[in-house]
Specification:
Elements (H helix, E strand, L loop, with lengths): L10 H30 L3 H37 L3 H28 L1 H8 L5 H15 L2 H16 L4 H24 L3 H25 L21 H33 L3 H17 L1 H19 L3 H28 L1 H5 L6 H26 L1 H7 L3 H26 L4 H25 L9
Helix pairs in contact: 1-2, 1-7, 1-10, 1-11, 2-3, 2-5, 2-6, 2-9, 2-10, 2-11, 3-6, 4-5, 5-8, 6-8, 7-8, 9-16, 10-12, 10-14, 11-12, 11-15, 12-14, 14-17, 16-17
């Protein structure tokens, strides 16, 4: 008899869910690093332009992901209750909603391209702004496709099947890297080439994941059913359930990214060297968080199904078990990246002074990541999966404005620490978030909040 008998997820189930997610997140981060390395051949202004626009892109993608998370949590809870009919209904409404929302945002981004960029990054130098404008136009066209892909990938994760999104992600990344090499180095298209390659890869990912969800022959727990015009109608009752999680989650992610954009604007005021070092350090530091991000995504499915089945003690056990695993992974990778920080930064073709600054930021980040990152970002996914999303939203928004933004301006301008001060403000945010989330979990007030 298996030692995990009686639990909703065996050790084998956890491995099958988490390992593909680690691979997928690894590909997502390394592709970002590859993009930056390839674009760096066009100069620091190109790297800076791409990093500034990516702060906007990440904001919008996180909003789509928040909606996808809302849909996947609802679907997970229905699957935990063994209610496939409503799980399918939630899936359909998720895909319709995210597609419409992303299309509207694309239209706005294209119509007000340079106006938005000037409003947000007015302090950017002219050559940086020129790269921003081009990159923003092409990546904005990809919003509907990345929204649909994220929705489909989240649904497969809610079924406990993360292998599908891993395989599709591999294909998308191959297209992205190959497209970058062709358009940047052969056709000399600069940041436009990088953006077009991203657009094509996202179109392919969206088409494949949608076709798989439409195909009943794959024996999935969840299917999309679009047979007539009636099937394209919005079910506002189901959408309200999804938005009950998606809106707080989206507001949390949105405010988080808006704060980062404000701080990106602050970093911009320190010059191109600071922007480039900040972008590269952020790129490399995110590598250490790959397994923890994957574990957090897995936690949504695992805790969501436990909550749907009413197994709250199992949910609690899995939250702490996955948190411990996240900490172990962070410790291991942060040690490795700290040791090899300078050789890794050397791949980015930066000047000596910019390289020194990037290495300094990476070392600081690794120290605080080991101590506080998992508690700030892995743990709250357990609360979200249990529908305790208003608490996580309020905590994150409060911490963002009081700690991250307030402390960043204090350290960067008041104490004259420049871009390092911005990172110290980020670390203060992590400390506050972790303390609040641990207290919430220990008190158990998150139990009994399921949305179905």
């Amino acid at each position: 008899m298996e030692e995990n008998a009686g639990n909703l997820f065996t050790k084998r189930d956890l491995k099958r869910l988490i390992l593909p997610l680690v691979v997928e997140q690894f590909l997502a981060v390394t592709i970002g690093m590859t993009d930056t390395i390839m674009v760096s051949s066009c100069g620091e202004a190109a790297v800076s332009g791409v990093s500034l626009v990516d702060s906007i892109n990440i904001l919008l993608i996180n909003i789509f992901s928040a909606l996808a998370t809302g849909g996947s949590i609802i679907a997970s809870q229905y699957l935990g209750r063994d209610d496939r009919k409503n799980a399918n209904a939630a899936a359909k409404q998720l895909m319709l909603s995210v597609g419409v929302l992303a299309s509207v945002i694309t239209l706005i981004a294209i119509l007000f391209n340079e106006h938005l960029l000037r409003l947000i990054f007015g302090a950017a130098e002219d050559d940086v702004m020129a790269n921003c404008t081009v990159y923003f136009f092409w990546t904005a066209l990809s919003y509907p496709f990345i929204g649909i892909y994220n929705g489909g990938a989240a649904l497969f994760r809610s079924m406990g099947n993360s292998r599908v999104s891993m395989v599709i992600s591999m294909g998308m990344n191959a297209i992205n890297v190959g497209g970058n090499a062709l358009l940047i180095f052969v056709f000399q298209m600069g940041v436009a080439g990088a953006a077009i390659a991203t657009l094509v890869s996202r179109i392919v990912g969206a088409v494949i994941v949608t076709l798989m969800l439409l195909n009943r022959h794959h024996h999935h727990l969840i299917f999309l059913e679009f047979y007539s015009r009636r099937d394209f109608r919005f079910d506002f009752s189901m959408i309200r359930r999804i938005l009950g999680i998606g809106i707080p989650n989206g507001l949390e992610s949105g405010m988080f990214q808006i704060g980062k954009i404000l701080l990106q604007s602050l970093v911009t005021s320190f010059g191109t060297m600071a922007v480039a070092a900040n972008a590269v350090a952020g790129n490399i530091s995110s590598f250490t968080q790959i397994p923890s991000v994957a574990i957090g995504l897995a936690m949504i499915t695992i805790v969501g199904q436990c909550v749907g089945a009413g197994a709250y003690e199992q949910a609690r056990k899995y939250i702490w078990k996955l948190y411990a695993l996240s900490e172990l992974c962070l410790f291991t990778l942060c040690i490795v990246v700290t040791i090899f920080a300078r050789p890794i930064v050397g791949f980015y073709s930066l000047t000596g002074e910019t390289t020194d600054l990037a290495v300094q930021l990476i070392v600081w980040c690794n120290v605080f990541s080991v101590l506080f990152w998992a508690g700030s970002f892995t743990l709250p996914n357990g609360l979200r999966a249990a529908s305790d999303v208003r608490f996580t939203m309020m905590t994150s928004i409060l911490s963002m404005w009081l700690c991250r933004i307030g402390c960043s301006y204090l350290f960067a301008l008041g104490f004259g620490l420049g871009v390092l001060g911005v990172w110290l403000g980020m670390f203060a945010d992590w400390v506050f978030r972790m303390a609040v989330f641990i207290i919430r979990l220990l008190r158990g007030k998150w139990m009994g909040k399921q949305s179905i």
